[in-house]
Amino acid sequence: MMVSKLFGIIFFCGLLSPSQEVLSGLSCAVSSQAMQNVLSDAIIHNGLLQQHLQGLVLPNIMGEGRLLNSPVSITGLHLVQVRLPRLSVVLLPGIGVQLTIGAKLQLSGNCLVGLLSELIDILVDVNITANIKCTNFESGTVQVVTEDCLCILGAIKVKILSGLLTLSVNEMVLRQLTATLPALLCPVVDIVMNLVNIQLLGTLNAVIPVGTAGTIHYQLASIPYTSGKFLGLDLDGAVKQVEGSTIPHDSSPSALPPLVDRLLLLVMRQSFLNAILTLLLRIPPQTFPCTPDVFSGANHLHEALWTITPAGCSPCRGTSPLNIKLMLGGNPLILLEENKASVKLSVLIQVFIKHLDGSILNLLLLKADLGLNVRVSIVGGRLVLQLALGSTALSLESSDVGISNISALKPHCSSLLMERLLPAINGALNVGIPLPNVLGIPLIKVDVQI
Q1: According to the model, what pLDDT value does residue 316 have?
Q2: Can you tell me the distance from the alpha carbon of 129 to that of 103, in angstroms, rounded to the nearest whole number?
Q3: pLDDT at residue 433 greater than cutoff 60
Q4: Nearest one of 216, 158, 220, 169 to 62, comparing CA atoms
Q5: What is the 3-state secondary structure (H, E, C) of 85-112?
Q6: pTM value?
Q7: Which of 63, 124, 171, 244 is the most exposed place for a label (fewest CB within 10 A)?
């Protein structure tokens, strides 16, 4: 069921018509609303802005109060609290993120009017706008630069206990704060954004285990880019086996599909998925007796086998039990079509007799080329693939006893593979493909499209 507002979408693609071409294993489009949520959480809700503004000390304010011609001096002026902070984001094509932070700053200090000294409270509206650019990409990291920082002051309220301040003092305070606050606040924004950058890079550059089979090393592949609708991120996904070797995968240029009304779009490429399937489907060969307690269709397979066995094969009809060996014959290949995913997988089926002296009689060795239908789901931040048998093509590889016509074995081999092999494959895939925690955006209400 489609929902109107999706927190995440996984989109498998092969080769699309390139617009924004990328060469990585995984790409992301992050909407301006999602970026606003991410930065609001990091800067506002987690208290980072308050933390770095706390204790901010402002220069003394000196001037003429026009109250009984008494001079006014305000000293020890410092930030007490950031009230009602709010943040908004605009994505500027080719530039970066335009960040706007609005808040009320509560300041406190000592006010000396003539010989009268008392506490002063100042509440001033500030609006800070800055362009945030990413530069100096290297090995999965970027630096952020704050440019064109503009700090505009709005309404101001000045209060002392005696209430002896005049309008001219308000004007004097506003004038002095307008001259001094931007030089104090803009560097704080720069510090905060650099800390946020480190935090967010940690969500992109991560080594995530894939069960006990190996790991995926996600890393930012290139400098982020912006359009008017989304922030684009390309990630490398190095698929490594547990012993440390990397499973290679090719990358082809492709285009990001439209973001529409989604907060986050993840695009995973076919070659990247093939590398992960190769990692997960390292299933050891299965060898077992062809008996009903192991394979429910064992008796039917026996009967079909005897009908195609040459009459002169006396060992075939002896008392030695049949044995079956299943082994994967090469790496899996995932194929992506519109609204459909399938996996091609080759399996070798050996049917043999093991004599008491240890010698083996190979009745036949079959190659089964399987077409497996893929069902996709998201579980706990992992992409889980489950396979079902769609088609089976059997071919004879060899036979020590002269078997040549294997057409009668197809239904029995299909049953054998469904009963013995598919549970092992789906068990291996049940670990799931770990997805990067892109900018900490939760994958909730996920729509999966192929």
Answers
A1: 66
A2: 12
A3: yes
A4: 169
A5: EEEEEEEECCCEEEEEEEEEEEEEEEEE
A6: 0.84
A7: 244
Furthest C-alpha separation in the chain = 128
Looking at residue 17, its pLDDT comes to: 31
CA angle 378, 381, 382 (to 5 degrees): 60
Neighbours of 3 (CB within 10 A): 10
Q: Which of 268, 306, 279, 272 is nearest to 290 (CA)?
A: 306
Token pair belonging to 367? 């190659």
- Give the tokens for residue 89: 């984001």
On the question of pLDDT at 323 being above 50, the answer is: yes
Q: Please report the pLDDT score of residue 143 as a whole number.
A: 93
Domains and CATH numbers, the chain: 36-204 (3.15.10.10), 209-449 (3.15.20.10)
3-state secondary structure 329-358: CCCCEEEEECCEEEEEEEEEEEEEEECCCC
Question: DSSP readout, 188-232?
Answer: HHHHHHHHHHHHHHHHHSEEEEETTTEEEEEEE-S--EE-SSEEE
Q: Tell me how far CA of residue 442 lies from CA of 42, 253, 265, 382, in angstroms.
A: 14, 27, 12, 12
Closest by CA to 435, choosing from 449, 424, 446, 420, is 446
298-to-44, 302, 304, 340, 360 alpha-carbon distances in Å: 66, 6, 10, 34, 20
47-59 pLDDT per residue, tens: 899 999 887 888 8
pLDDT of residue 118: 74
Backbone angles phi, psi at 111, to 5 degrees: -120, 125
**Using CA atoms, how far apart are residues 232 and 337, in angstroms rounded to an integer?**
24
- Element at 322 (helix H, strand E): strand 322-328
What is residue 315's predicted lDDT score, i.e. its pLDDT?
Answer: 65
